[in-house]
Amino acid sequence: MRGDAFSRQLRLLQLLESRPQGIEIDEAAEELGKGRRTVYRDFEVLERSGIPLIAERDGRKARWRMMPGYRHRLQLSLTWSEVLALSTGSQLMAGLAGTLFHEGAVSALEKIRATLPKPLADRARHAEAVVSTSRGGHDYATRRRILDVLLEAIHQRRSVLARYRSRTGRRRSPSALRRIDPYHLRVTEQAIYLIGYCHEAKAPRTFLLDRFESVEETTDTFHVDPGFRADAFLGGSFGMWTGIPRRVRFVVAPPLAHLFFERKLHPSQIAQRRSDGAAEVQLHVAIGPPLVAYLAGLGASVSQISPGSLRRDVLRVHEEALQLTRRRSVGALVGSDRSARPAALASQ
Fold first, then answer.
1. Averaged over 323-328, what is the pLDDT?
2. One domain, residues 56 and 88
3. Largest Cα–Cα distance of the chain, in whole Å?
4. 149 phi/psi in degrees, rounded to 5
5. b vs e for 200-213, b when ≥16 Cβ sit within 10 Å of the residue's Cβ?
6. How far is CA 50 from CA 25, 70, 186, in A?
7. What's the predicted TM-score (pTM) here?
8. Which CATH number goes with the domain that contains 294?
């Protein structure tokens, strides 16, 4: 593609700028991940564009470099720790593959690498062997257009009409559209969320990007409340579940108590070690399904949950899981009895 060729030639120019001693065809081909003939044509394109290049031959090999005194732009100087931090940041963006966030990070890192001296560029290229990150489980490639529309609508302050699946997975009729004033995008380790004013709920809400089926920008503009701040709006949220924060308290048994001293579950967390080794934990958060699921996941290690409504919700999760397990166990036994019956009858 034409855009790919331009990007590659720009990277080649950056390589030439960062290496006054010059660069051989084979070396440039390895850096750019292309064949010798393609790179040779790129050198010719740069020459035709007015870049003063010199090809010095050493036997059969030619080393290309810029004419002394010519510089297209200032050089970028980075330390190893800065390069490693950029490389790690780019890897973290891998969970956002298919979005402009990931593509922009990869492109920017490649441009930066092209300006580095060769020893530092080589170290940057092997940074993944030093530091690795977890990868996301979302397929944002299928949400690319939706994300682009939302970003443009946020920038232009225009309302959107969206088809959006509820948390339960239920879909509305094809004609049912939700009107949203998009305020802000929140990128987390788990997913991408939109914060916006929902005209149906008549209040700001959070929307998971994965649940948007379609988004269309309108010509209607809106104004964001000057007092709105995304961090303040999400201050009491738990797992992006927003609402009125409430005081939550629970006790975690000694085997898992250390987890709450190694890492905070929420910025509001206060944890105290009890004499028996247990941890008494207090939070100031919105109570919803994410918090209920988290506490239920601690199993028998959590106790003394308050408020009472939260304790009952956690207990209901355990009871429903127990009933489901019993039904499946009974069904498996009945199924095995039925399969064994014909053989038993035949033996009589």
1. 87
2. no
3. 102
4. -65, -45
5. eeeebbbbbbebbe
6. 20, 11, 44
7. 0.64
8. 3.30.70
326 lies in some domain: no
Rounded Cα–Cα distance for residues 186 and 302 (Å) = 31
Domain membership flag for residue 250: yes
Q: Is residue 18 part of a domain?
A: yes
Place of tokens 């969970």: 95
Instruction: Locate 132 and state its tokens.
Output: 């690795």
Are 90 and 105 a contacting pair, CB within 8 Å?
A: yes
- The residue-averaged pLDDT of 73-84 equals 66
Asked whether the predicted pLDDT for residue 175 surpasses 60, the reply is no
Asked if residue 106 and residue 53 are part of one domain, the reply reads no
H-run or E-run covering 331? helix 308-347
Task: State how many domains the chain has.
Answer: 4
Is residue 252 helix, strand or coil?
A: strand
Task: Give the confidence band of 68 by pLDDT, cuts at 50, 70, 90.
Answer: confident
Residues 154 and 114 grouped into a single domain: no
Q: Specify the amino acid at residue 307.
A: P
Q: What three-state secondary structure class fits 184?
A: strand
Under the phi-then-psi rule, with left for phi > 0, alpha for psi from -120 to 50, and beta for the rest, what region is 48? alpha
* 3-class SS of residue 34: coil
Same domain, 206 and 225: yes
Q: Domain range spanning residue 210?
A: 140-233
Distance CA 162, CA 174 (A): 11
66: Cβ contacts below 8 Å, ≥ 6 apart: 16, 17, 20, 51, 52, 53, 54
Identify whether 330 is part of a domain.
no
Identity of residue 292: V
Q: Which residues pair with 250 in a beta bridge?
A: 281
Residue ranges of E strands in 136-177:
158-164
Q: For position 53, which CATH number holds?
A: 1.10.10.10
Rounded Cα–Cα distance for residues 226 and 278 (Å)? 44
- End-to-end CA distance of the chain: give it in Å, rounded: 77
